[in-house]
C-alpha cells in the first residue's frame, strides 16, 4: 500500500486579489481555515522578498490561527531566515527567487549553491523546522539535497505541467520520466518527496500514482477554480482526483 498523500493548499493568490485593491479582503487566513475544514492537510504560503502577495502579518496570523501544519516558502536570505526562526513553521521550503519572475520559474540550484544553503539549512533544522528544497528532479540536485541534510525535496512540476497544457507530448513525456526516476532516487536516499507547481486535477491525479510522493502543494489552479465553485468544493474535487490516482499506485 502506498503511503497516504497529503494536500497542501497554497493560499498566496488570495493575497494577490486582496492586494489588487489594498485593504484586508479577501483574507488569506480565512481561506486557509476554509481549506482545512474542507480537507486540506496543510497550508503553504510564500513570503516573497517584494511582498507582492503574502505579507509578514499573514505569516504570523497563519501560524497563530491555523490548526494544520504551515509550510513556509522562502528564499534562503538572512531576512527570511530570521522570519522563519521567529515564526517556527512546521516546515520551510527553500525556493529560488528572482524579483522579475511572475512565479518560481525554476528549481533551486542546490548543487551549485551548497555553500550558501548550508548555514540556512543548518539553522532551520537546529530550530526543529523541517527543511524542504524545491528542485528539478535531476539526479545532481537530488544528491546534493541529500548531502546537505535536507529532510524533504519538493519536485518542481512546472515544466511537466506546462508541456501538458501546451500539448507538447514528447516534452511532457520526457519531463514525466525525469519526475518518476527522481522520486525513486530521492526516496532511496532517504528524502521525503513532495511535488508542486502548476498542478491541476488531471496532473495531480497522474502524479498521485507515484508511491514515493507523500505531499502535493497546489495553489494557483485551486484558487482560480474556487472563483467558480468555491474553495471547499475545489478542495474536495482535488482530494478526489488525488485519491483516484493513488488507487492506481504500484506499491
Ligand atoms: N510549491 C512551490 C515550492 C511553489 O513555489 C509554488 C508556487 O508558489 C507551488 C508549490 C504552487 O504552485 P501553483 O500555484 O502553480 O500551484
Structure write-up:
The chain is α/β, with parallel strands linked by helices and 251 residues long. The chain has helices spanning 12-21, 28-38, 56-65, 78-87, 114-126, 139-147, 158-165, 169-188, 201-207, 220-229, 231-247, and strands at residues 6-10, 42-46, 70-74, 91-94, 130-135, 152-156, 192-196, 213-218. It has an eight-stranded parallel β-barrel with strand order 1-2-3-4-5-6-7-8, surrounded by eight helices. The relative contact order is 0.14. The model has no long low-confidence stretch (mean pLDDT 96). It binds pyridoxine-5'-phosphate.
Question: What is the fold named in CATH at topology level of the domain at 6-132 and 200-247?
Answer: TIM Barrel
Structural class computed from helices and strand pairing: alpha/beta
Largest sheet: 8 strands, parallel, barrel
Rounded to an integer, what's the Rg over CA atoms? 17 Å
Whole-Å distance between the termini? Answer: 5 Å
Mean pLDDT equals 96
Provide the helix percentage.
Answer: 40-55%
Q: What is the tally of helical segments? A: 11
Each distinct ligand: pyridoxine-5'-phosphate
Order of helices and strands: EHHEHEHEHEHEHHEHEHH
CATH architecture of the domain at 6-132 and 200-247: Alpha-Beta Barrel
